[in-house]
Specification:
By secondary structure, this protein is of the alpha+beta class. It has two domains: 156 residues, Alpha-Beta Plaits, CATH 3.30.70; 91 residues, Arc Repressor Mutant, subunit A (Orthogonal Bundle). Helices cover 57% and strands 11% of the residues. It is built from eleven helices and five strands, in the order βαβααββαβααααααα. It has a five-stranded mixed beta sheet, with helices on both faces. A hairpin with a 5-residue loop joins β3 and β4. It starts with a strand and ends with a helix.
Length: 270
Amino acid sequence: MFQVCLFPRRNETSLQQQPLLNESEWAEKAASFGIHLGEGSCYLPVLALPERIVDVESRFGGAHLVQFVLDNTLNESISTEGCVNLSLDERHAILLFPFHITLKRNVHEEIRTALRQAQQAFHQYMRIDLSLYIGELCNDLPSLKKQILTFWMVNLVMELELKYIVMQHFVSNFKAELLHLGERISMEEMAGRLNLNASHFSRLFKKETGETFVEFVTRSKVERARELLDTSDASIEQIAEQLGFEHTSYFIKLFRGFTQLSPSEYRRKM
């Protein structure tokens, strides 16, 4: 199988991002990748992506290693002559199967068999479940680029939907998790759990909850502190330590900011 990286590294420009102004230049570059369109030849594109990608990246030690595993396992498990493996990004690949229209062979079924074998290889040897999305036949460069961009948009929508679901689950379950944490909780750490960068996570969080991550954490800890003051004999210092505050004085300051009372004053009023 011929393999090529479709996304740019450093200052390179990808085939995907170039405008289709000079089709002959595109044809020449595509041919250098092993893609030969025209004169009746077609390709059937297939989008390949590992499921539960965050867990996979954690197990293999990062996105770059996942890309290495994805590319090499695809190359080893698919033996279709003329098939081209395009790396869409570090998590996804596009397979271009040459498609020769003939009555003598069921090319669609041959490709599906090759894909099933690839899925079995990923599951058996890598313990990865591989999702595959079959596109539409492409017989020229404009239709091929359109299909690649369609795959990219499908993947983008899927990731946004997944992150929205995960964010909702995170917001609804984070407070319960927070009660058991005796350490400082950073926005960067939480963003990493959702596989988001910190700034994007911050915007999503504010949109979903109506408050910043810091405000949410502080309010949740103050609410937990009030519960502990109401129901336990723990000292102010012990409660501050239990909720992950390094300095009791800072805990008292935050508590007063939310309740207009110090923890001691709050406890005496009860």
